[in-house]
Design brief:
Length: 140
């Protein structure tokens, strides 16, 4: 998938590598729209290679990425890893999980859906609601 990336948690270097399961990567990547901190923690556990990896697994949480991320947050902070370090390392892992899920061409195609006409009030309202939802992302 990707070249290994190293992050530091509580003074220990941790190697991260994107998981091979596209479905697990997508579940964790898309979970950030509901709760970024939990999604980042879930991504961290999925990408973590080697010693010290969180004991919980995505399958143990019925493939619920947010429940999995919450368990990872609890486990790592319970071990004394500062929350900002978990979230920071998790963001790096989350970015690894997202690599290759959506191509640049797909983004451009999604952005170019308009025929150039005037925007409707309905579309503007939906956009404002979407923006508000994105800005109010939940925290744990």
């Amino acid at each position: 998938m990707s070249n290994p990336t190293t992050v530091t948690l509580a003074g220990v270097d941790v190697e991260l590598e994107s998981p091979t399961s596209t479905s697990a990567r997508w579940d964790v990547y898309s979970a950030a729209t509901s709760n970024p901190n939990r999604a980042f923690a879930a991504a961290l556990a999925l990408c973590w290679q080697g010693k010290g990896r969180p004991r919980t697994r995505l399958a143990a949480h019925r493939y619920d990425a947010l429940a999995f991320g919450g368990a990872v947050l609890d486990e790592l902070t319970g071990r004394g890893v500062p929350l900002p370090e978990v979230i920071g390392a998790g963001l790096v892992a989350w970015q690894l999980c997202g690599e290759g899920l959506i191509t640049g061409a797909e983004v451009e195609e999604a952005e170019d859906f308009s025929d150039g006409g005037e925007p409707s009030t309905e579309a503007s309202s939906r956009s404002a609601v979407s923006t508000g939802a994105a800005l109010s992302g939940g925290e744990d």
